[in-house]
Every structure is written in C-alpha cells, then in structure tokens.
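Help!! Second protein's tokens look totally different from the first
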Amino acid sequence: MFVRDKLDRRSYIGKEYEEAIELPDLIDIQLSSYEKFLQIAALKGDGELNDQGLEEVFRATFPIESANGELVLDYDYYNLDYKSVKVTEAECKRKGLSYAVPIKARINLIFQSTGEIRQKEIYMGDIPLMTDRGTFIINGAERVVVSQIHRSPGVIFSEEKGVYSSRIIPYRGSWLEFEIDHKKELIYTKIDRKKRILGSLFLRALGLDTREKIIDEFYKIKTVKVNNKREGAGSLVGMIFGRAVYTEVDGVKKKLYRAGEKIHPHDTDELIHSQITKIEVIDFAHPESLNTTLILNCFEREESKYNQDDPDQDEPTKEDALASIYSVLMPGEPITVESAEKDLVSMFFSTRRYDLGRVGRYKLNKKFNYENPEDSHVLDRADIVNTMAYLIRVFDGEASIDDIDHLGNRRVRSVGELLCNALKTAFSRMERIAKERMSLKETESLKPQDLVSIKPIVAAVKEFFGSSQLSQFMDQVNPLSELTHKRRLNALGPGGLSRDRAGFEVRDVHYTHYGRMCPIETPEGPNIGLIVSLANFTRVNDYGFLETPFRKVVDGRVSHEVEYLSAMDEERCYIAQASATLDKDWNLTDDLVAVRKSGDYTIKSPSEIKYMDVSPRQIISTAASLIPFLEHDDANRALMGCNMQRQAVPLLFPEAPLVGTGMEGKAAYDSGVCVKAKRAGTVVHVTSEEVMIQPEGEEADVRDVYPMIKYQRTNQDTCFNQKPIVSLGEKVSAAAVLADGPSTKNGELSLGRNLLVGFVPWNGYNYEDAVLISEKVVKDDYYTSIHIKEFVTEVRETKLGPEKLTRDIPNTSEKSLEQLDEEGIVRVGAKVKSSYILVGKVTPKSETETTPEFKLLNSIFGEKAKEVRDTSLKLPHGVEGTVIDVQRLKRSEGDDLSPGVDEVVKVLIATKRKLKEGDKMAGRHGNKGVVARVLPEEDMPYMEDGTPLEICLNPLGVPSRMNIGQIMETMLGMAGAQLGKMYETPVFNSASTEEISAELEASGLNAASKIKLFDGYTGEPFENNVFVGYMYYLKLHHLVDDKMHARSTGPYSLVTQQPLGGKAQFGGQRLGEMEVWALEAYGAANTLQELMTIKSDDMNGRAKIYESIVKGDATTAAGIPESFNVLVQELRGLALDVRIFDTKGKQIPFTERDEELISRQGSRF
C-alpha cells in the first residue's frame, strides 16, 4: 500500500482577484506549429489537407515539366507510414537512433503526347516526429527547435542621419529600396543595395513611360482657363503643367511645354500669343494628390537622346530606362532590351524568384489600406507607386516613420515554418535534378521513381535537425529549463541578426513586448535581449505575430469575452490594467482609471476604455512568475533569479516551496516530466516501476498501464526519475498526475528546499555573498543529488584485424581486473574510481621484426605475447560512482552502427553528490553565493527554544542588490512553517507587509520576524535581534566536483610541447605574460626559469629533473624551451639561417638532429 503525504491546498494570500482565463498549454507554440506542418490530424482523419506546411512545399514544386513539355511529374498526396516505424522513443534514446516516420508521396508521370499516366508511391525520406513534450529525438539525444524572431516581410519606412528611406522586404527575393536625397529633393531607387537609380527612370521601366502617366499616378489634374489679358494670366505663374501643351504652326503640331514644367511669367505671354484658352495643371491642394514636386524634380535629371525621326520624343523611353537599370544590376554585361525586361519582371513580379509571403502581402495591404487578394504573393505596380508616395509623405511630415523594433514589424518563425523553408530549397534542388534526368533518359522505360531524387531532401532534414543554429541540444537540467527552452525566441540564426551587429535598440525592452515577450528573462552576456522568452498567455497568430489576450470593456463594464490582439491591433485602444478595481457586476468603479495606449500611460474615464488585461502575470514568462514578490525585486536581480532557477539540480528529496505563486503546478504539468492519466478510473496496482488503472465506462475491459522512467540520464547528466504519488484504490480523474518526475513534489515544481535562514554575519564565513551551512543539511541529504555520466567505447574492425573485448589485457594487474566479467565488461553495481577499467579492450599492433626473444616468449606463452595494445575504456580523472547500467549494441544482432564498428558498449555511472564547500547555491531572487563552510550543528547560532539555524546569509547582500522580495518571502515562510500552511501569493498581486505581519502575529511571532539568537560557540546571545525565517534555496548546476582539478604530469601539445589547458584535456595551469611580469617584479629569477623551462616545454630538462630528484641532487641545468625551437624553425622557413654560439664561438645545437650535424660536419654547419 502506497501512501503519499497529501498536499493541502495552498492558502491564497494577496489581493482578491479572479482569473479571467485559464493559462494556455505552455508548449503549444511547438506542438501547434509542427501539427500545422505535418497535419497529422487531417491525415489520420482522412480530412482535407490545407495548403500549408509540407503540403504547400509539394504543391509549390509540382508539377515538374520537362524542357520540351513532353513529360510532366505531378503530385497527388502524401502520407506518413507509421507501420514501418519499429522503434519507440525509449529505444531510439538507448540505441542512438532518430525518432522519425517515413513519408510516402503518390507521384504521377504523365506523357503528354499519349496521355499515359504511370503512378507510384515514392519514399521521400524520413521526417522526425515531435514527441508529446515538444521535442525531437535525433541520434538518441533530445533536441528542441527554438522559434526565431525576425524582421517581418512587408514595407518599412525609416530615417537615418536625415536620409528618409523605405524598403520592401520580401520573404524570399530581391530587396527594393527607395530613398530621398533631401539636398537635391530627388527620389532614388536601389535594388539589392546596389547603385542608386533615379525614381522616375524606374517607373518608366515598369511601363509608366511618359511624364503624363507618372504624373497621373501621383497627382490629380485640374483644368484652368488662360485669361487673354496679361494681368489675369499672371495667376497661372508658379503652377505646373499636368499635360504637355501643343500648338499648331503651319499645320504642324508642335510641343510648346512638357508636362511637369513650371509656368514662368514669360510663359503666360507665349500662351496668350499661341491662343491657348485652357491648360491642365497639377492640383496640389487635392487630398489624393502629393503636395510636393519631388517626383517632378526627377524629370529634370533625366537624360534623353535627340530622336531625328520624332523630334517630339524628348524624354527617355521604356527601353532607355531598362538599359540604365540593367547596367546597374549587371555592370559590364551586354544589354538586350528583351532580357532586361524579362529579368526585371522575374525579379519582382514572378513567383519563381520573388515571394512576399502571406505576411508581406498582409502588411502591405494594412499599410496602404487596400484590398489586394491575400494570395497575390508578388508585387504589382500599385505597391511600388504607393510606397514612393507614402515615403514622400513621410519626408513632408504628413506620415510617420516605422519603428523596426515594434512587434508589428517583427514576427516569429516556429519549428514548422523553419523546417518548411529548409525543405523548399531541397525540393527546388530535387526539381532541377528531375528536369535534367527528363532530358537525358530514354522516355519509354521511365518510371516516376527514376526521376525523383530524394538525396537533397534527406540531406536537408539531416542538416536542419543536426546542425542548424536553431536546432539545439535540449537544456534538461530540470523541468523548468526544458519548458523555458521550448518557449524561447531567438533573434540569431539563419536569416536573423548576428551578435556583433545587433545594437542596443534591438535588445532593449519595447512597449509592444507588454504581454507578448518577457521583459525580465533573458541571458546575461553577449546574447542579452537577443534571446527572450514568451510571456505566459502569448500565442502566435497565423501570420507569425505575437498576440496577447484582453477582456473586452463595453461602456465601463468588463465582459467575459476575451479577444487576442497583435501589437498593431492594440495601438488604437485605451487598455486598463488587470488590477483595476471592479464591483460585483464587473463595472469599473473608479471615475478615472489608469490606462495605456501605444506606450503612453495616462488616466481615462471608464467609458473610453476598450479593453482590460486578463491577468497580472500576463506580462512575464513562466520562470519569472515562479518568483514570489517579484514586484519588490530590482529587475537585474529578478533576471538572475529567472536564469538560476533553470540551473537548479533535481534533488533526491525535493520539497515544494512554503511560499509559492500558484504557477508551480502548471509549470510542472506542462513540462511533461510527470505521468498523467489518459482516462479516469481506479488505481488497481502500484509499484515503483508502474501504475495500473482500471478505467470507468464502456472501455473498461482494457487496463491502462503507465510505466515509470527510472534513473535515466538527461542531456546535462542529471537524473530523470519518476515516482508514483497515487495509492491503491484511489479514484483518479482524466489528466490527473499519477507520478512525480524530477524536481516535482505532488505534481508541483519543487526545485529546492525550504531552509531556516538567519541574516547574520558569522566569523567572516559569509563575506562576499558566501553562505554558511549547517551540517544537518548535509547529513539529512537535503541537497543530495544524483548525477549520471555515460562512457562509450567502440569495438572496431582495423586493418590489422578486429579489436576484442577481453579480460586478458597486457601489463595489467589482477587487482585492476577484479570488477570485470569474463568478457571484460564492468559488473553492474560495481563501485568504481578514476583510472579503473570499465571495458577491457585490445587492439592489434603492427607486426614488428621477430626477434629471438619474441620467438622464445611466443613458444612459451603462445598467443599471449602477440602484439596487442591496451585500448581499454578507463574512468577519467575526478570521476567516481556506481555502475548502474551497461548497454551493448552489436552489428551481429541487427543494430544500426556506423561503418567499421562491430559493437558499441555504453557504461552508465551514477554519482551521489552531497552538498559541500564550493558548491553554488541561490534563492529565487538572484541572491546567489558559494558554500564557504559546513559547520557542525552544535556550533550554528540557535534560537531561544534551541533550534539551530540551517543557513546563515550576509545581511549586506540585501540593501545594495535591492531584492527585497527575499525578505518578504522569508517572513511569510516563517509564518507558514509555524502555522503548518503553504502559501500561494501571485506575482504583482502578492501579499502586503501588513498581511504578512498579521500572519506572523497569528503564529505567535514578532511582526518583523526578528528573534533573539545565541552563539553556538559561547552560548551568549547576540547583541541585536536577528532576522530569521524560511527561504526557498536551490543547489545550482555549478558543482565544485566538476570544477576542481589538479595535474602533476599529463598530455603535452604536439608542436609547442607545452601542457594542454583545461580540465577536459587534463591540462595544466597557464603562467601567462602578466604572471611573468609579477615574478620579474619580485626578481624571482630561479622560480621563473624553472616555470618556463622544466615545468613547461624543455623536453630534455623535464626528463632529467625526475632522475636528479630521485638521486637527491636537486640542481639542473635548464635547456632550451621547445617553443623557442618552434620560433627558430619559423624563421628558417623564411630562409633565415638562425644559429646560437657560445662565448668561445662554439655552436650550440637546438635539437638532437643539430647535434648530429655539428658532430658530423664540425663547425661548417
């Protein structure tokens, strides 16, 4: 019978508040994106496939037509072949395989001349499946594809150093930019950041090949009468012709004025003289007309050739414009008008080379308020004209520039879209190969599978999941780190920013992040602000923009209707905060309510308010909403608190926090580490290995069995273990938690332990944030954790014969072999230390000349003396533990191993790590420190009833850090421990100091939680009362055992012969140039010489020093460091013959080779 210490429901303490909406599934961003890509639900339910994801990739590539139009490859549908998936997720992890499903596509080969159709279902490669935890298993390791936040396609207007410019950014294709030269008042066009082209020339190339056509696009025309009196006609001066003016001379039509020219005083005389009564001029006052001459100024700059046949042709033709553009795009190429026009059209107006994407079209439609169909994914002339006109309005101050950091201009590409883009390029390669094969092969015997090459597709999938910057090894230290990793947004990666070029603005918090991206959780260091987390309620809409929910407010009354708004939609509304006071009928009670609108904060009457936030924790991420009293912490420390919770090591005996925020259950549930019931029922069988449930209802004949994962290694070598929390006979509902995973207790996230803490200095042991820990904490295994390391060896086929697993290892004592079985593999359960043999293995050595001695040995011992090398797997330095599992994969048993490998042996070693000096610990408020001393329980300061403290922190760590949240948590924790309560105090709605003091007084304590403490050494009371309470404290994944390192001799670098660096290489300590200066300053000549020669790279010296120490003669003549020889050889490589001579003119050799040469040739060398 299994009993659990049932968790009482947490007591709520804080402002009274009712949640308007449940928290969504926290890993939905991963699951829904991949579901849209593969459309598994539609495939299983025989539903209609939408044109998105993989289906869209197929539809965009097919049909493929041969060059002569005779053959066509067409696509019908695809399906996922689940039947051929033989391995489970657990087996994939164990065997180092990928958890994937084959894709089969029905492809038809159509012969146009005969109408014959050959049909085949073709295997198109394996596509990895997403687990229900939102991860992928690639080569046995869990990976996460992080969502990327990038600049949205569309049009952007900006201003830099007085230059106004606009860019039309496509999803794929060439960039089109316009900029205004404010000195000359001209507008220019740039294609792909090349040389500038005059704006009017670009318009001519698009078919607006006369001044009149260009004027009609940007201006409205009005007709004015020409008064035949001079004074009356003077009103025309300064107007601009909207149409050319012609006159007749001797029956021949002659152009008098061109469109776009200004009317000067003498022109009025000419008009009257030519008897022109009406002219058409530009109406700048018209609301749809530009009120500037920017476009017209371009006409003056155009060059036109004089045409003898048509003297009226006084402006550049479309052909001239195309030629000038082509000369900028392809300098030095011969120009033909046809190819120039074809290139320009395919560059912006054909789906092959240009794609705005749904998002780009949506953004253009929204910007210019027109109804273009959303399926038009290329530019049209109206887009270009509108962009130029809007830019001129921006220049004139009639419209505003865009903010590129606004979340309306940044969008999210999740896993489905990222994989889709990778596959699009692969499919276009496949299409090219298919077209080549169509023209090369004999058509009679052709089958669809002969034309489709899946190599580029397989390679693209492998490359994307294996080595893309956004496909990352999952951070699996604890459930929170997993969850946060899946909810991360990354601005880096292909098509994103680069770390060095990202400025301050991109990284900074923007007002549109409110409710969409967390302003707190981001890494410290070079990635700050480029890697962020989604806020709690955020979802990604169909266009990839982040949306956050709001409650609708109608006439000052808050409705239950919830609407999701993107950053663009939110701009136009006044929005009240979630904490605004409401009466029982949901009316806003205050006459003036604090609201925000596009980054400004003001107060408005309830009738003007359109929306209200749904929750106070709407603006922060999951990790930040696990910090109680977050609003009392400085943002920098809260950031550290978020990041350090992700580094908390799962403990052997975790404990839920006394002071929580109400998010603990949701975070643990959605992280996927707990076991959940699929159906409601009764528990009929419980062991540590499995839980069995008898379901209720119709399908009660099949019992549900839930196996537990026991002591499995995670990506970060922590321990993943599940324990049942239900008891026999218990009734469970569907989706209830049946078993705890790592760092969870009764279904709640439990990253650490509640400790009795006193803020008191103790003999300097809490200097500089260090912490003093009671031995009780170590003895009672409060912070003991299990870490599992994996060691692998491969048995290979070599040129000289196969390697062998054996106990029979040359030159090895029997004692070293006592833990191995007859095949040379360590026993499960064996205790092992560094340099112990885990797997005995020998490799054949190359045959040497057979000496008489060898023949004698061989005849006596047979095989034994045969040339084999010991290549056993030994435990590296600094590792010890217990062997908990040995896994063997053999080619002979059908396991898929890399070429040349016959067998792989994996040994898993578990180490129990108790808390010790040097381990890093932290609270949830960024209050981190290193354990400085573990003090016996009897020496710790104690309270009046004799209870000793468990941890002493430095009071000086609080004021300058301004993380007061830890003080409030400690006070409330004290009350909770005394009253036997666990509290829930939500972020931004948490308990006030008055409420906390009331709880403390109810538990019979001082309202400020200050207590008389006694010194454990003397028994005397401390001079002042000390602040004491319970704080939730974590042990972080920076353990001293992983960092401590020592070396006497070890490996040396091949060229310089200096010791390697770093613990992983078993390296030495570097004595750098600054350390050399320090020793020089002290005049420590002998120490310095010794360090730079025999302790480093004087090869002869370091061999001789051992001998001299053994003989008791500690003097040694220092030789020449090898790095000096390297320098000399470098110089010799530059044809400089460098030699050294002593005072007598005798040459000193550098190397043994030099010594030989000198002795052979005398001083001629």
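Here's the second one for comparison:
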Amino acid sequence: MPTPTPLPAHVPTPTGIPTPRRGDPAHPTRGRAVLALLLALVLLPVGLVPRAAAEVRDGLPGLDGSDSALLRQAGHRIAPGLDLTSFSRLQPGGWVTGHVMTADLSTPSLSLDVADGGTVSASNDTVSGFAAEADAVAAVNGDYFDMNASDAPVGTNVSPTAGLRTAASDPRQAFTLVDGRAVVQELASAATVAFDGRTVDVDAVNSPSWRTDELAVFTPVWGSHPVGRLVGAAEPVRVAVVADGVVRSVGEDHSVLAAPAGEGETLLVARGDARARLDGLRPGQPVAVDLRASSDVDLAVGGSQRLLTDGVPTREDQVTAARTAVGVSRDGTRLWVVAVDGRQADAHGMTIQELAALMADLGAWNAINLDGGGSTTLVARPAGEQQLQVVNRPSDGQERLDSNALVFRSSATGPAEDVLARPLLDPPVGLDADGAHDLLPGLSRTVVGVGLDADLAGTAARGRFTAAPGAVLRTDGGAALDEEAAPDGARDGVVVRGRAPGRGTVSYAGRLPGGRVSDRVELTVHGEMTRLEPSSPVLALPDAPPGEASAELSLTAYDADGFAVPVETRDVEVGAGPGLAVTTSGPTGFAVTATGTDADASEVRLRVLDTEVVVPVTIGFRTSPVADFSDGEDWQVGTARATATLSPAPGPDGAPAVALDYDFTTSTATRGAYALPPAPLPVPGQPQAFTLWIEGDGHGAWPRLQVTRGDGTSTNLDGPHVDWTGWRQVTFAVPAGTAYPLTVTAIRFMEIDAADSYTGRVAVAGLDAQVAADVEQPEEPFRPDPVLLAQGDVDERPQRVAVMSDTQFVARDGADGDLVRAGRRTLREIVAARPDLLVVAGDLVDEASEADLALARQLLEEEVGDAVPWVYVPGNHEVMGGTIERFEQFFGPARTSRDLGPTRVITLDSSSGTLHPGGSTEQLRELEALLDDAAADRGTTGVVVVQHHPVDDPHPDAASQLTDRVEAAALQRLLTRFRAGGKSVALVTGHVGTFSADARGGVSRIINGNSGKSPSGAADEGGFTGWTMLGIDPGAGIVPASPEAVTDRTEWLVAETHARVDSLTLQAPDRLAVGGQAEVTATVVQDGGREVAVAWPVTATWSGDGVRLAGSRGPAVVELDPASGRLTAVGAGTATVTVEVNGETAEQRVVVGR
C-alpha cells in the first residue's frame, strides 16, 4: 500500500454513517467496507489544535504556555489578597515544578516588608526563620549575597519599617514599592556625607560589594562581620568614626575596622583615591550623614536580571537552575512571586529566558530575577493552618541560610466566617496527593475540618461531619488527630469509610459567630479490593546499633480496574517478626526498625480486609567474591557492532584486572564490548547488589552485568555511565522480586546513542556480591486481566485491530532469514483474519539501516499490500542506527491519528525511550489536543493509544518501559483523566518481549509480545511469540459516572493473543466416572521447541461435543472450567474436548461411565 499521507488537519468522523456491529445481519461483512471508506476519509495528520497561550483555568494563573505539556496545578488560599498555585509541567528544556504566589496589593490588610537577621552581615537565617520573626503569612528569599564571607546582600534593600538596609555602589535591578504600587527599577546608593560646608557622595551603604577608590558607610545595621575583611590588608584606606553626628576619629589604621560600628556610630571608609573625599575631616567636626537610595522607595529588594521590561523579555540567559522571581502588573497593583525548583528528576529548573517567558505568560508587565539556586525558598502559612510551611523543595535538600527575605503580612480582623475541609492525606499546600480522594469499599479516609479566621488562619469551628449518599460512604466517628495532624489543636477530624462503588461527599459544617458555614470534600469509592501491594516487596536494613536501622513501609490497595488507593494505618493489622519493631509514621506509613537481636532476617505481616502481604526483612549483608580476575588470560571478548580486545591488566592496589580496548566508531547502531568469563559465574545466596571496580576513560559507555535468573531468563543489572577517569567502585542493584539464584554471564559496556562515536579503554576488577540472609522472596503474582481473553475470541466485535511488534530482523540475513520468515508468517495470519487495521507497534527491524527499512517496506507491501490498512509505529530499533527522519522517509510520519468510526486510534513515537525526543514537547501537546478533541466530539466514544514503550514493564527489573518515569506517571494521569471524563481509552504497546495486560486508573494497558525475536520472559508468563487482535465495541465506549469495575472496560475493548503454533497437544483423561474430576491441559510448541502452556495470556477456545463450559447451562457429559483446567464428569456418555489456538486445534475423547 502507499505510504499514509496525513491530511492538513484532524478530520472528524463523517456523520450519518452507522457504526456496524459484528453479527448484524444488515452487515454480513462486519462493516468492513464502511470502515475502509472511513479510513480513506479520516486518516489524520498530527497537527496541533491551537490553544490560547497561557489560558487561565478554574481561576488559577495561566501556566500552560511556553510550549509546555502535561500540566498539573493546584491552588490554595494563603490570606486575603494572597493566593498560591503549585504546578508541574514538561517544557522543551525539561520538567519544571514550581509555585506562583499572587498578591493583590489593593487589599488593605496585606502588607510587604524586607526581613533580615537584624543586621545585614553575619546574621543569615532561613526564609522560614525570617518569616516567623516577622510574623508573616508568606515569604520568599530576596537579594543575592556575599556567600560564605560577610553573607551581606549585594544590592539595595529598603524596609518600610526599618529603613535603608543596604545600598550598592553600582545600579542594580530591584523590586520596589512606591506609594503602594510595585515597580521594578534600578537602584543604587544616593547617600551623602556633609561636613565643612561641602557634600560628598557615598558610593555604598552597608554593602560588601564596594570597590577600590570608593567611599562606603557602615552603620550598626551592618553587623558583626569585620569591615576590615572587605579590603586588602595592605590597601590604603582612610577611616572616620562618627558618633552622634560628630567625628570621633580619623585615620588610616586598619585596626579600627576590626570592630563593628557601635550604637549611634557610623564608619566612613574610603579606599584608594576616595580617601581624598575625606580631606579636611577632623575629630570633633560635625558631620551630617544622609542615607538614601537613588530613588525614593518605600520598599526594595535587590535582584539581578530584568526579566521583562514593559512586556518585552530580556535577551540575557544563564544556565538552568532553581529560580526566584517577582513580576508586576502594568498598573503595579498585582504581583506574581515565582519559586521554581531545581536539580531534581521532576524539576530541572529554568534558564533566564524560560523564566522571563513564564512571567510573561502569567501576565506580568515587568519582572525581576532574585537570588536562585540553593537560595530559592518559598514559605507560606496555608489557609486553615497556623504554622509556616516550606512550599518548594530547596535544591540543597534543605533551606539555605539566606541574607534577607521579602515577607508578606496580613492584618485582617473580624470574626471567623468560613471553614475548610480536606482529606488528611492531601497536603494543605502544593500539588494534590495521588489517591487522597479515592477509596475502596471497606477502607477508610481521614477528613479534617477547621475554621478560618479573618486572616484565613486555622481556628476552632466546633464543626460536624456528614457523608452522603449513605450507600456509598459512612462516617466511623471522630478521628483521633495526633500532634502532626493537628499541631494547633484547632482541627476536627472524621473517619469516612467506603461502602460501595460510587461518588460521595463529606460535608463539614462549622458553627461560627456569623452562623453555620460548610465546606465539602468529594470522594470516589472504586471497586472491591483485588490486591494489596507494599511500597517495597523486600526491606534491607543495614547493620547498625539497636534502634538505629529503620525503613519506611506503606501499602496501596487496588481494585480490578487498577485504581490505586493509599491505605491508612488504622485499616492495617501488623505483625512484626523477631528482631523488628513496627510503629506508625504518618497517616499511611510504618517505620520498621531493627531492635538489635541476633536475627539477620525476619518479616513483617500486613493484613487489610481479607488480604495479607508478607514483606521479608534482611538485616545486614556479607560481601562474597564473585570474580577476582586472577584468571584474566582465560576471559574472552565479545562484541556487537564493534571491535574490541581483552587483556590482563593491573587493578586498584595491584589487584588483578582485565582491560577492554574497544572501538565504537564502526556503527551508529547500538554497540557493545563484553568481558566474558571462562564459565558462567554462579552466585550463592540472594545478593542485593554487586560491586565492581571500573577504571573509566570518561567517554560515557554504559556498564551492565548480564545475569541469568533462577527462572532461566536473562536480564541486565545497570550501572552508571562511565563519565569518569581512573578507578571507581560501582554498584549494580538487584531489583526486588528477582528470581534467585543468579549467575553472572558477562560484563558489558554499551553505547546506545547513534551520535556518540569513539574508541576507548576500560578495565574491571574485583566483582563482589553483597549477599543478605536468605529470605523467602515474595513471588510477584501473575495476575490475569480479563481485557486479555483466556477463553474465546473477538470475531463478533464491530471493530478489530491487529497488533504485531518486535520481529527485529536485519537485511544482511537475507529476505529469507529466520526472523524475516517469522514476520511474513505473522503478517499472513493477520491478513487472513481480515482486521480493520494493522498496527505494527515497533521494532519490526533491528538496526534501522536503509536496507533494513527497505526490507520492512517490502515485507509489508508483499504480505499486506492493500488488503488491510496499516500503520507502522517506530520503536527504539527503528532509530538504532540513525534518526527518526530515516524511518519517516520510508513510512511517513512517526506519529499519526485516525478515526475508525467512533474509535480514535492515536499512534505515538517513543523510539527515543520517551515521548519528548530531544526535549521537544510537540508530540505530547498534540496528544493532549487530540484527547481534548475526542472528549468534546460527540461522535467519538473511545480512544486507543499505541506506542512502542509501555508505561510500566511487568518484569521485576522494569528494564523495558518509558525511561522518563515522571513522564510515565504524567501520561498515566492524562489517560485516567480522559476516561474520568466519560469515554473509554486503552494503551497498547510492545517492547517488553512478553504478552501481558493490566489496568491502571480505569485504563486497559495491553503489551504485545514478540512477533519474531525470542521472548524475554518465561513461557508460562507471556514469553511466547505471536500477535494480538483487539476487539472493540464502539457502542459500549461511553463510561458511566460510576463505572462497574472490569465490565465497563471489557464491554468496550478486549483482546486475544494469537500464539504462534507449530504443534498443539491436549492432555485429558480417556475415562471418568460420573462425579469424577480431572485436569485438562494443552501445550503449544513453537519456534523449534519452546513449550507454552495454553493458559492466560495464551488465548484459546475450548469447546467440544458433550462439553459444557463452567458457568453455562444445558445437557452435557462433562463440564470444563477453562480458567482452572478442571474437567468434571456430569453424565454418562462420550464427549470430545476440543481446544483451538490461533486456528490450530487438538481434541481428546472422554468416556464417562456410571
């Protein structure tokens, strides 16, 4: 077929065309002709649906500008005229998490000040400290300062209550208030000294940044840092000490600068040529010192770059970092105070240009950059609280000692007139906590309520809670709030418990002087709990004195639709094994502490409702040598698309090592150089990690330990990229849930970036295992999800979409190579099944050379042609040897969207391992726009999103999933939010090497296994080859307000796997007596001998003469339960049990006697 060519805009489904339903006699061809017409009409390009820049949603500041995507935001009140919005978003530079405080300066009760430690030097404090001392409701860090020296601010700072604090010699941008209006302007010193009939300019006041040939004034405000340290020891100075307006002394002795200015004293310090300004000054002479800034302001906080000038962004730029900024509206009555986090996975910070764009998006007319980096700190006392809280996450990991802060005070008076309620799990400030508003039947949620005084601080309200409807929620009485939950004692609390699925409301009615007022908390009760997961399947405590080794543990409950609900501690029965103590730690957490017995292994048992989980706990570990490389001459070299040699070498401290000289310039595809031991290295026990000494060359190769797990499958343990030189010990963690024992089979160094080409030399020495005491490893339950059928097919669904992936052939193996033949076989099976659409979900090729892609094109044209519409979604192997543009030359756009009648199919490009390749947010913004359009389009009932990488890899090592875990979580939220809007959605992927399916947040997630390449998982856990057919009923795509778990997902979409079948055998008894039972099994043999049990996720159709399936009615000789394989003889006679897998059948005759 020709390459799909997108249209210039997304075309909605034409109206007036009925949606066919399979089995409808009016559509004997199952509507395929109609759907083919629709495909021809509505093949969609992916172009952006325009959105207003930085639009304001729900009254919050506009934060979706600057080409950002995946925005989360939450707003909170602080005080009258002062609100706070926290946000997280992805923008082209990376993830940004920040906070915007808006201030309405026309609010009479709101005032601003500049707070410091009482002096400006040697008195730094945290922003929390400044705010508490100033009795503020909020504060943000202020001016840059002379860090690790005098710690004094370097700009001009003016307090409305304490006057001029510092004045710089050079003009610097400052945030100022003038007659109640905000202005960003340059400020400097305009101080003067008058004596002997003349007036002398003073260059700086209490400033650490004055220079040679300048005159500075230091008052007691300066503080205790010796002024003498600001000048060179041999530098000529002239110092005058003025007390109560009279010169006490004049001289050039530095010693006078060792002591701070006393009460009523002023130091005049002239450096270099400025000494001449004090000529004629003598003791006893009257002096008038006038301290002022260059502009008459009521308040000033010094800063640096002017971000916006009359709406125009600055051209300056700097590195990415945490940032603090203040923006001002055009009329000066509104402020935007911004704190952006930095140096964290979900918060890389901002450049100056990005910060300027944000301030413009928010609506600022002028804006200034204040001190940032580790100094960035925003604190606030949220509505309903009495204590200040740190709102952001300082990039130093804790609050830095800053020089000053811009503080906000509120003086509103009057009786309490409002109340506030929230789940205790939801923070009073910041982004909402996942699951805080969710419940499952039988689980509880603590809801707290409090009165709000005129300043919005928390106050007692003597309130009453009610929950409705009673069929969904019930109250369990008042909650006992500890000091952490109610530090001020003003809060009321209630325990609310879920009764049945649905949406409910908890109301809090307070009795206040002005009468009753109320607030409401919306809660959603999802389906019955189907599983319980601990935050860590195994806890590893280090060796430590009794009571000092501790770890946190919490539980999450899930329903059958994958809704995750944090479990509060009251709902958990806890049992601690020998040597352990378990105490509560917050509403949902437990602290597990080693008590100091001789036990090196124990366990914690946690029961919720009727489900129990056991968390093994190890205490300490021993180091066990795995390879000392004394046999280095026997080690072998291995390569992939590279050349390398291996030789013995000296290691650290003279220990033996082996060196790997490699050449990664031979290909742009993934390259590897490996050190292979003479024989596989078995590792006894249950190692938690391996350590290996690596002599780095700084080129950035990726070290990996290849190991075989206890279940016979292979995986890699990843280390950090070798960006160092010299010897360094590296740790390779073993994921919890790994099947033991482990065997090391290779030490691998990889290069996966096509743009990186280099030669180098690394060496390795001393491979050790950190082995903890043996514990019974918790088995990850293999949980069948009904979205993937174990029994039946999707033939009667109105729409069917075939999915294949991960064939991974290379052209150099020829057009008749094994993997090419496997791909052809898969395509022929799909064409014979006559789906409405074929989606190749990535990794059809292995190296993405031009020859590979040309062969892929040839295969699709020869085997599919125009028999079935198809779309090719790129995977990581489609860009292994180059860029996505090469793929697009052969197959068109890397991302597409099309409507199959009422079903929208969106395909995304995750070939880079993320959905934002090269930092571009375009694809994610397109996805948001397409989902918004689908939600608004009355003709669309559901969306299928296809990409190569899954959100989550079901294997313990989680090595095959979206690499940006912040993006993965955000994508899941986006899809869950779409479904909550009332329409169905599913995510279909590949990449993992096994067939699997689950649900998260009501979203079915289907992983197609390999269609050619050998699987990566165990055969009985989806590790087989084949393809998947999706069956969709668009008429069932609309999701009700209270969906029924599983049913509403699977009525819209289910899937069947088509395992490759070389042979199929059925094992069943020849004879049974009436009432007797036996087990029936079937086995698929594929790909030269792989045996696969016919059980989920293998889809089969069980049937037969005289056979009744469990749950059905009617006469029968035997009853068969396909899920358990149990065969029950129910009547005398002869039956034939039949199983069909992917068109192949096997049968067994069973005679039942009395």
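Reply: Different proteins will give different token patterns, so don't panic. The radius of gyration is 35 Å.
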